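Obj.: predict assembly geometry.
Materials: sequence records (below).
Method: joint structure prediction, all chains together.
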Amino acid sequence: MYLELVEDDGDRFLRCRECEEQICAVDDDYEDWRDHVPVRESEVADRMVDDFDMWVKRREEEDKAVMLEYYCPGCAVQLHSQTTLDTEKRPLQVDPDFL
Amino acid sequence: MSLKSTDEPSVEDVMNNDERKRLARAWVDSGDFDQVTAEVTQMRNTNITHEMGETLKQTSGSPIITEAQDFSTCILDTDGGIVATGAYLVFHWGAAKKCLEAILEEYDEEDLNPGDGIIINHTNLGMPHKQDNGIVMPVFWEDEIVNWVWSASHIADIGGVSPGSFSPQVTDTFGEGITLPPTKLVKEGVVDEELKKVIQAQSRVPVMAFNDIRCFIGANNVARDRIHETLEENGLVQQKMYGEVSNVLTERAMRKRIEKLPDGTYTSVGWCENDGDRNKTYRIECQVIVEGDEMTIDLTNSDPQAPGPINTGPGAALGCSFTPIMLQLGYDLTLNSGLTEPVNVETREGTVPHVDEHGASGFGHLDAGHELCRLVTESLSEAIQMSEHEDIHDRAQAPYADDWSCETYAGVNQYGDPFAWLDMDGGGMGNGAQTVVDGLEAGGLSTQVGNRVSDIEWKEQSYPVIHLWRRLKENGGGPGKFRGGSGLDKAMTLWDAGSDELVGAFLAARFNLPPRGYGGGVAGSATKLIDYEDTDIKERWERGELPSAPDEFTPGSEHLTESKEAPHVMTDGKVVRHVIASGGGLGDPLTREPRRVAKDVSDGLVSVKAAKNAYGVILDDDGNVDQDATDARRDDIREQRLEEAEYPSN
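Observations (raw structure tokens):
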């Protein structure tokens, strides 16, 4: 929602819609943007129960439930908040043909 | 009405499915048809399915039908295409299509007569789970089958090891109750009494169970009569051709919307947790592949099926995968087979999204099935957001909570009669936030848009329980610019029971992995069931107190259940609190208008702590927004975010 694909002199890059911070160049892997922004990783229960006063049961098994919060390095808007298992950090992959 | 087209087909043409489709496309291409007749024909068919629904509600004795509207009605074509559906259980269109295919494999037309009715509940052949039973009947006109009609619903108990037939402890389908492959239960209008005895012998509530089956037959008979009236009025050629024209119009509209999505592959991965056997995770990979005006949902790269009953059958996989597409892209289009024509769903037998013949699946469509809904919503929202057509950007949304958590009980009621009961409040979950509005607070499953929670007075009149509270829960909905729907928080205890205890089961899908948010929005909160044992609730009542919150009574002990638990028992003095899952938020919570947060706090939906930590909103002593403090708090959170986060390369 907060990222847009911008083209400038044949170069394509992703930028933040909120502050126009340039995040990264885009070639053929759209998901690369996640390597170029700060991310906060925490256990889902720590974040939701302790910080947000919400409920989720802590996962005690080996495959921990984690929350990954990605922020724009320019304005700190939350680009993405992902709940997943720590064994699979990118459960959402986008591979559009136009890249 | 009359056919406007100059190219008038024959009866043979319209009874040939391929030829009828070809002619309908030609009519639409040329514009040589009457648009009003097409619309009237479609609406008339749809109204027949609504009348079927009313018949079910007026003739069933089960609250699952009369109160919760947990049923489906359809008119189908002879090739399994949906002519019209009542849109109560939307995803049942997949079951109806798959089950009719199984019936057509089993019976030739010469084996069938007017008034025949075929019962089916087989998961591997199309039904979502065995509690869902359907009666499918051919509609004859001049000695030929011209349509099929379908009525189906969840039956309160069809046997198995747990009351209500939700059995988390099973490791195959044989403990989940009777399996009914396509079986002719009604022969030329007469119920087979021998088969009826067999079916009733499996159920803990035999009279209610078979009364439901009779009401399916009744609804189908109503549909048959209405179809006959329509055919008498309009003729077979007009009725079939204009039904097909409506399919073509819907299909073309749907294709135009899919065409607005960028071609590509959008992959979302999720997990089912706890199959009842152990708290292992089962991975589901959902690829949404967009190519031109067609879309494929590929689920074949998912984990092998689980031992426990969380696997879904192919009919539910079809219906659950398609539902978000309908809600996000086809929201205003007619529900007929044209809507589904451009979408293909691929599954592999023996996996979590496609259970084999003997695999357990009693909770499957509510577990793996609705994980599919969440995953398709997530992938589709990405495709929608990447579209260059801004007019569809609003259709992105956070996933629904889609965790229908089941509480079942059996025992003896206040009238001395044995009962088995599925409390339909489990459907009171929050929905995902959308781009312009918060999620519905207790909107139910995405696939079951006609469902309702039951009236409390009616529940207490029918079953030996009394409610302490039922309300929207605090801090449920995922924080976001638009907040996820809250979901329900309710508690009840035993009251005037004819037995010392009620025994049942509890099953929920989401305890560890909450429903995700979207676009910077945070996940919604998960489901939980808490048993407060040996409370002083009766003493408090005697003192005139009416506890309506956990801190208003004293328990001897407190037990948070597992997400799958059986037996789950309600005893005298125990309070069972069921907190139902919430929808994910959409957008960064720091961009939510502070006045909306203040209202959420005032409404009891967000705590002061969550307003401060999740939304960065500070309220004054009167509950009004302190704008300066809020601005400062939000600046602090932004600063804190960048301080506490790290670049992956670090």
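Conclusions so far: The mean pLDDT of chain B is 95.
To do: check interface contacts against the pulldown list.
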